[in-house]
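User: Need the bound-state model for zinc ion:
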Amino acid sequence: MRNLGLILELTRWRRAGHVARLWWRDDDAAGSATTLDRLLLDRLIVVAGKTGCPVTLAVVPSGDMSGLAARLAAAPAQVGVAQHGVDHTNRREGPVAGEFPHDWTAAQVREALARGWAGIATLPRAIKVYMPPWNDVHPALAEVLAGEGYAALSANGELDGETGLPRLDSHLDLMRWRGGARFRGRRRFLSKLTTELRRRRLAGHWDAPVGLLTHHLTHDTGAWTFLGEFLTWTRARPEFAWTSLPQLLPAGSQEAPPTKAAGRPRRATRRPLAHAA
Ligand SMILES: [Zn+2]
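Assistant: Bound-state model below.
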């Protein structure tokens, strides 16, 4: 990855003796999927399998989940599942999208969440972590999630939670959205990664994971190509460690064990792609 700012930042991490933790969330797999949707999810699962990077699918609990369940049962063990909303329907008015109007009571939110979780709870490697569509956080959401036994909330941009509920956000969006979904671009993506690493270093939050966010249904050729290169490159760099979502949760909050693929990169293979384009 030719990005001078990133290489300099990684040098600072290495000199400080710290390893940057990465985790990967992919959104919008659902029971109600077309044939094309299924092929795109298969492609994502292949990328995860080939690179050995753990990925958590943020699954929308809508439609018949049996087909998705069968495919997940055959997928590599590092492909996990969490809850992406309740039906991915925007019920908010105005420019900000969200499933729960903010005048809904906590009881209404709780009821919707429970219905959604029931739809995905039996999927292989499902973990009770909530990932709201459009990153919309209802005022009562954290309180309801904690009360319902969710292990964490995952939205966008934060380093940790303020409410007591663990917060595992995404920070690096592979896509740009304004004007139509397309690959964010190599330079923009790597600059954002550099910014996120610097933010953690300056705050002393060395262990705060950096979340990669992908949307397999919208990837163009540039996004697919870069994703594979980025995962392979980071797997080989000693400054990074890929972690699964269960590994990032407080001990005992979930049952799923770490996978063989997760964890620190193998140092024997360091830097084979350090100068790849
Ligand atoms: Zn979504």
